[in-house]
Amino acid sequence: MTIPWDDALADWWVAEVASDPVYAEEVIPLALGALDPQPGRLYLELGCGEGEVMRAAAGAGARIVGCDLSARLAQQAAPAGPVAVCRLPDLGWLRDGGLDGALAVLVLEHLAEAGELFSAAARVVRPGGVLALVANHPAYTAPGSGPFVDPEDGEVLWRWGPYMDEGSSEEPAGEGSVLFHHRSLGRLLSAAADAGWCLVRLVEHGVGERRAAADPLLAVQRQIPRLMAARWVRHS
Fold first, then answer.
1. By the 8 A CB rule, do 129 and 208 touch?
2. In whole angstroms, what is the distance from residue 110 CA to residue 28 CA?
3. Which of 54, 126, 153, 182 could bond to 80 as cystine, CB 3.0-4.6 Å?
4. Are β-strands 227-234 and 197-205 bridged in parallel, bridged antiparallel, or unpaired?
5. CB–CB of 53/28 below 8 Å?
6. What are the per-10-residue average pLDDT scores of the chain (236 residues)?
7. Could you give the CA distance from residue 133 to residue 120 in angstroms, rounded to a whole number?
8. What CA–CA distances, in Å, run from 221 to 24, 87, 121, 159, 180?
9. Which residues, in sequence order, are CB contacts of 225 under 8 Å at separation 6+?
10. Against a cut of 0.85, is the pTM above it?
11. What 3-state class would DSSP assign to 12?
C-alpha cells in the first residue's frame, strides 16, 4: 500500500534518519556543499522533514526557513527556523524574489512533475540566487534498476531498467511503501533550465568510504552513482 507523504510517514522517516549513518555522513555534507550557505542570507528548505539539514545550515550562520507536508515533522524542525506546512510545489505563501536560495534534499523524486518545483523555486528566489538539490541518482530511480551479480564470474553488473522513459516505482517504507518518480538526468537538467536555472555544479556520488569498507558487495559498486547533488543560479 502506497503511503502519502503526510503524518503517516513521520515516525518512519525520523527512524530512518536516526538509524542510517549515510544521512549524516554523506547526504548532509552533499547538501551543504551544493547550497554553500552564507552567513546572514535567507534560504528555504523544500520538504525539510525533521530539520536535520536546516540545523546544519543554521549552524553555518545562515537564516533558514522550511516547509513540509507533515505537521509533525514541521514541528520537529521548528527549533531550527520558521516552518510552514504546505504541499509542494505550492509556494504561494511566499513573496516573489524574497529568498537568497532554496534547497531540496531527497524530495524531488517524490514529486510527479519536476518542472513545477523548479518554476516555483525560481519565483521565490531572487535573481542571482541559488537552488541546491540532493536526490537519488536517476540511475537508481528507473523501475527495476539495480545491481546484480553475474553467476558465471561474480562480476557486479548494473541493470538499467527503462532509464530513458519517465516512470515510477513503489519502495518499502515501514509497513507500506512510498512512490518514487523517475526521469533521466537529461530530462531533470532540462526541466531546471526551462525554469530559468543555470547549472554551475553537478556532483555524482557513489558508495561512501565507510559503507564500502563494511560491505564487500558495496565496495565493488563504487563506480556506480547513488546520489547526485546540483547547484544552480537563477538567471537575472
1. no
2. 19
3. 54
4. antiparallel
5. yes
6. 72 84 91 97 97 96 96 94 96 97 96 96 98 95 88 83 94 84 97 98 84 68 87 92
7. 14
8. 21, 36, 34, 13, 22
9. 137, 139, 140, 204, 205, 206
10. yes
11. helix
